[in-house]
């Protein structure tokens, strides 16, 4: 598994539409951005396989000042981890990062240059019990800059059933630090 030891320089970062609408900064391709992040198993979370990075992650105990979670280290990047794995566990993951602007387990901050921005949308339908559920593949569309309210170019035929899920950002990471809450 030597290919897992290659240093990942560009990571996919998902930012939910709700977080972006409420407290997110507007940004464009080429801008420097920073977010507190959580490492996730993207394949298990249903992300499209082609946006993920294949890494070997090692789970560590959370920092002494953190109240919950664990620390995941993957090819030099350190991020929050919510999984049940014990410290010392090594995992081969098809991974991504999720930006948490509201309630990070602890500050695991990454900073870098935005290389690509895609809106993420999916169709949804209402079940007989009234619950709206996503169906079909997610639609990813490139944009040069973010707007306060996300809107895809809508390649889904019936636009009455489209939900804007968030942003998928390719971030060329230049800095990564852990720090306690103030």
Structural class of the helices, strands and pairings? mainly beta
Largest sheet: 5 strands, mixed, barrel
The rounded Rg comes to: 17 Å
> Total number of β-strand segments?
9
- Strand order, largest beta sheet: 1-6-2-7-9
Topology order in helix (H) and strand (E) letters:
EHEEEEEEEE
Principal-axes shape call: globular
Overall pLDDT level:
81
Which residues form runs of ≥5 with pLDDT under 50?
Answer: 1-6
Measured between the Cα atoms of the first and last residue, the distance is 40 Å
* Tally of contiguous helical segments: 1
Strand residue percentage: over 45%
Relative helix content:
under 10%
Record the SSE blueprint.
Layout: E1 10-16, H1 17-23, E2 32-41, E3 53-60, E4 70-74, E5 77-81, E6 90-99, E7 107-126, E8 132-143, E9 162-179
Parallel strand pairs: 1-6
Antiparallel strand pairs: 1-9, 2-6, 2-7, 3-4, 3-6, 4-5, 7-8, 7-9
Characterise this structure:
The protein has one helix at 17-23; strands at 10-16, 32-41, 53-60, 70-74, 77-81, 90-99, 107-126, 132-143, 162-179. By secondary structure, the chain is mostly beta strands. A 5-stranded mixed β-barrel has the order 1-6-2-7-9. The longest helix is centred in the N-terminal third of the chain and has 7 residues, at 17-23. Mean pLDDT is 81; it is low at 1-6.
